[in-house]
Design a protein that fits this description.
The structure holds two protein chains of two kinds.
Chain A: E1 7-20, E2 23-36, E3 40-44, H1 51-59, E4 67-76, E5 79-80, H2 86-92, E6 97-100, H3 104-107, H4 114-125, H5 131-144, H6 150-153, H7 163-175, E7 181-185, H8 193-210, E8 213-218, H9 221-227, E9 230-235, E10 238-244, H10 245-250, H11 255-262, H12 302-306, E11 311-315, E12 318-321
Parallel strand pairs in A: 3-8, 3-9, 6-7, 7-8
Antiparallel strand pairs in A: 1-2, 1-4, 4-5, 9-10, 10-12, 11-12
Chain B: H1 8-17, E1 20-35, E2 41-57, E3 61-65, H2 72-79, E4 87-92, E5 95-96, H3 102-108, E6 112-115, H4 129-139, H5 145-158, H6 175-187, E7 193-197, H7 205-222, E8 225-230, H8 233-239, E9 242-247, E10 250-256, H9 257-262, H10 267-275, E11 324-327, E12 330-332, H11 336-339
Parallel strand pairs in B: 3-8, 3-9, 6-7, 7-8
Antiparallel strand pairs in B: 1-2, 1-4, 4-5, 9-10, 10-12, 11-12
Helix pairs in contact in B: 4-5, 4-6, 5-6, 6-7
The chains are: A alpha/beta, B alpha/beta.
């Protein structure tokens, strides 16, 4: 058990697998992660690196029957979420823990009015509230996420909302009960750049207002740079680097992080060739024996292919799993 | 609105200097909106593309940027012959392709090919790689079975895939590899122009760079001309020679790549450039563009951008602005520009 009062969420050696016809896929393979109160942490990684699986494991909404948590602990305010009953988890989800899903056009039920879907969250966790004040609270929530004309908008169906508006409505649902931990899974990928900038701005404001801790899951380094205070980089089911935001962009340690930062085209800094990491991420059905990034790494040497590197503390909350630093 | 209309003089001089492979003039596409199931009543028009003119020179890359719904993809579909323009001309090497009939299009289509956004949907999951890449060759009756097989293997090698993966199915490949297959398919008939509709936006960052580099290499090797459509300004800037910025069916600014970044004149382009999140924690962006793109069914009177514009003047809401050339090759569609 942790005794640190600053820690809201502490994940210890989390292992989540998907059992498929082809065999066990270890989507998350031994992850340690701590989220402090009021902190915004960015979780980056390529598709299939296990970043979404971590969030689904915290919420315990893994796709069934394939997904299973096979080991580890998830401490939330000193309680292990993995030992909770289904009913206890249901009470926590949407209340203390909440999640903003990826695709705003798919995440809402097309047959129900936006106002109704918004009030569902409120109703479930505040059974004593009367319906008239529920409506007022819905309007206030939509107003808070800057949806214009919320009084009439609560009677609209999701298809009448644009992508940006739907995402705002989803954020409203996420913060309806003032959660302590908000997980946002790629909140801006489905949106236009200008609208994405607006949504990121909104997330920042929400964080300031509610003091909630946010986990932002994305593969877009730009949105991480804009709103996060810390970055966690994942590769093939494991965390390879954890760093404060400024350290990460100035002095990334892990070769994968370095490659990732270098391969983003930067406006106004046109080069002849973009740096690119060669090769593909490994299959998680049978991952490489040593460091999982070694086959694509320029600096890899013998040891990298034989043994997985331990996590090395570089000081100032900067940790890296790489033999170059061990 | 005739805002996108290019003065004839400029077009002529451009034609003389470089050989324009594609020249689009005053292109329009209106979709009529109907109501009712049987008696289809016309209730309005969506001006998806409303008077756009530009030239693409041989061997260059023309980038088209704008928010969703601004007409970028409609424009691309017209160039591919998938949509018939309401008005205007598209000339390919001096020939007006909008007047082509079905048969002429069949033969012509070898010249313009496309790569689409989502490589998970653009490849038929039931077909093998050799069938996917070889299909255009079979349709156009290029050589024998053996020759086609050889050509497909050659194409796979060209895009950096294993030439022995002829018998594989798309699901055996990752997103980046699938996009390479889509590129190989587009290259199979040796086209002169390739239209890239958001070619990297569905891919991961590290894979994005690989595909962009591949596209640049292929262009150098094969002398291709690209039209790239993207909402990612950084991607477009990296690969393009000229960039056109679209807003609500109109081209609002057209400039060589370096000029556009350094010296954007249209308030929309400026706001767009300023609001893009950058991967630098010391460069935190504030929101520069409030609101959303207005409905094209009922566009604002005057300049389409004026409700969101921060330097909007009174006349902006009355008169649509004209396209003016501020510097050679740099065109801006904003009245306000003169007064500042």
């Amino acid at each position: 058990m942790n005794t640190n009062k600053k820690e809201l969420l502490k994940i210890e050696n989390l292992q989540t697998s998907f059992f498929t016809k082809k065999g066990e896929i270890k989507a998350v393979d031994g992850v340690d992660l701590t989220i402090e109160y009021g902190e915004t942490v960015g979780l980056v990684g390529e598709s299939g690196s296990g970043k979404s699986t971590i969030s689904l494991s915290i919420m315990q909404v893994l796709p069934q029957p394939a997904g299973k948590i096979t080991g580890g602990k998830v401490w939330f305010k000193g309680e292990n979420l993995l030992e909770k009953t289904k009913e206890d988890m249901r009470q926590l989800r949407g209340d203390r823990l909440s999640m903003i899903m990826q695709d705003p056009m798919v995440a809402m039920n097309p047959l129900l009015k936006v106002g109704y879907q918004l009030s569902e969250t409120l109703k479930y966790h505040n059974t004593k509230t009367v319906s008239t004040s529920l409506k007022d609270r819905c309007i206030a929530l939509l107003k808070r996420v800057k949806v214009p004309a919320p009084e009439s908008r609560i009677n609209d169906y999701p298809f009448q909302f644009s992508g940006g508006m739907s995402q705002r409505a989803l954020i409203a649902m996420g913060i309806a009960n003032n959660p302590e931990l908000l997980i946002a899974d790629e909140p801006t990928t489905a949106l236009d750049v200008t609208i994405a900038a607006q949504v990121l701005g909104l997330m920042k404001d929400v964080q300031k207002e509610t003091k909630a801790s946010i986990i932002l899951i994305t593969h877009d380094l730009a949105s991480i740079a804009q709103i996060c205070s810390r970055v966690v980089v994942m590769y093939a089911g494991r965390i390879v680097e954890k760093a404060p935001i400024n350290t990460f962009f100035k002095k990334p340690a892990h070769p994968y992080s370095v490659g990732l930062i270098r391969s983003v085209p930067v406006l106004g800094r046109k080069t002849d060739r973009l740096y690119s990491i060669t090769g593909q991420p490994p299959s998680l059905l049978n991952p490489p024996k040593g460091c999982r990034f070694a086959p694509r790494c320029e600096k890899a040497y013998e040891k990298c292919f034989q043994q997985y590197p331990p996590e090395t503390d570089l000081g100032g909350r900067h940790k890296v799993a790489c033999w170059l630093f061990a | 609105m005739h805002a996108g209309c290019l003065p004839k003089k400029i077009m002529k001089t451009k034609n003389m200097k470089n050989s324009a492979i594609i020249s689009v003039s005053n292109l329009k596409k209106y979709f009529s909106v109907t109501k009712g199931a049987f008696l289809k009543k016309n209730i309005g028009q969506v001006k998806a593309v409303d008077g756009v003119s530009f030239n693409i020179n041989r061997g260059e890359t023309f980038g088209l940027v704008g928010e969703s719904g601004c007409g970028k993809s409609t424009l691309a579909n017209m160039l591919l012959g998938l949509l018939e323009p309401t008005h205007g001309r598209i000339c390919f090497e001096g020939e007006d392709i909008t007047r082509f009939d079905k048969k002429a299009w069949f033969h012509f289509r070898r010249n313009i090919q496309a790569v689409f956004q989502d490589p998970f949907r653009s490849l038929n999951p039931r077909k093998k790689v050799k069938q996917i890449i070889g299909e255009p060759l079979i349709v156009h009756k290029v050589g024998s079975k053996k020759m086609i097989r050889e050509r497909v293997a050659e194409l796979l090698d060209l895009v950096g895939l294993d030439p022995n993966s002829l018998e594989s199915y798309p699901h055996e490949f990752s997103g980046g590899q699938r996009q390479r297959i889509a590129i190989a398919r587009a290259l199979s008939l040796e086209p002169k122009v390739i239209i890239l509709d958001e070619p990297v936006s569905a891919l991961d960052v590290s894979i994005q760079a690989q595909i962009l580099n591949l596209l640049i290499d292929l262009q150098k090797k094969l002398g291709l001309t690209y039209l790239i459509i993207s909402h990612d300004m950084a991607v477009v800037e990296h690969i393009s020679t000229n960039i056109g910025v679209m807003y609500l069916g109109n081209l609002v600014e057209l400039a060589p790549c370096e000029t556009l970044y350094r010296d954007a004149r249209h308030p929309y382009t400026r706001a767009l450039l300023a609001s893009i999140p950058v991967a630098d924690p010391e460069d935190i962006k504030s929101v520069h563009l409030e609101g959303e793109v207005p409905s094209p069914l009922n566009p604002p009177v005057g300049c389409a951008f004026h409700p969101r514009c921060d330097v909007c003047q009174q006349e902006c809401s009355v008169q649509p602005p004209r396209m003016v050339e501020v510097n050679p090759g740099h065109l801006v569609c904003c009245e306000n520009f003169f007064k500042r």
